[in-house]
Amino acid sequence: MSATELTRYYAQRAQEYDRIYDKPERQQDLRVLEQQTTQFGAGQKLLEIACGTGYWTQFLSQQAKSVTAIDYNQEVLDIACQRDYANRSVYFVRDDAYTLNQLDEQFEAAFVGFWWSHVPLQRIAEFLHALHAKLKPGATVWIMDNRYVEGSSTPISHSDDAGNTYQTRPLDDGSQHEILKIFPSSADLEQQLSGVASSVKVTELTYFWLAEYQINQ
Ligand SMILES: C[S@@+](CC[C@H](N)C(=O)[O-])C[C@H]1O[C@@H](n2cnc3c(N)ncnc32)[C@H](O)[C@@H]1O
User: In angstroms, rounded to a whole number, what is the distance separating the alpha carbons of residues 46 and 8?
Assistant: First the structure.
């Protein structure tokens, strides 16, 4: 596994990450999504991609048979491990979302929270290939991420030749980071998932979107 600007940024941000969930204007949407994720994958073996500090793991674990949650950064996994999962079956694994080669089992459902927006457009197929290789035929996938909302989202600073967009993000130590962050439309998502998935459904809240699909059998 090799570090990138993105992985280094999130390692450095680990201790301040959860403040993103305190934004007052996002609270109503968050309650809706928390309730939905609690019900996702009930009774199933669930894979969570790029779990970060375990914010969504705490909801996913409530009804799943088990949650295996991966992230590249040990700094965030250490925080995720400290949450209370009420002795439910939650396993944290340090792994790269583009390979998932630390996992030797297959899962019945997958949750991808706030990771899709950091996947360069030219690496979407590579990520989906790695993810789907770890899922059983017909498995359900939920992908959740941010919508761009003026005044709430960090503005886009520039874009590259491939169409990827970037934000300049500060951390508490005063450092600035150019972070790839993409805000796809529902049509973009449907098109990006069309080759590998059936019954793609995209729901838009004010601040977030949720794409649900089943992988092709
Ligand atoms: C926006 S955060 C999302 C965290 C968590 N899912 C949440 O919603 O609170 C993105 C996460 O991706 C992780 N990450 C970055 N590059 C990765 C990679 N190549 N493989 C796995 N995780 C990666 C970061 O460490 C970070 O925890």
Answer: 27
What is the pTM (predicted TM-score) of this model? 0.98
Identify any residues that bridge with 208 across adjacent strands, giving them in sequence order.
146
User: Which atom of ligand 1 is the closest one to the Cα of 76?
Assistant: 27
Over the Cα atoms of the chain, what is R_g? 16
Q: 80-129, pLDDT tens digit by residue?
A: 999 999 999 999 999 999 999 999 999 999 999 999 999 999 999 999 99
Centroid of ligand 1 to alpha carbon of 197 (angstroms): 23
Q: Decide whether any atom of ligand 1 lies within 6 Å of the 73 Cβ.
A: yes
CATH of the domain at 74: 3.40.50.150
Instruction: Measure 72 CA to ligand 1 centroid, in angstroms.
Output: 7
Give the structural domain span for 105: 3-215
* CB-ligand 1 contact for 56 (6 Å cutoff): yes
Q: What whole-number distance in Å separates Cα of residue 152 and Cα of residue 172?
A: 19
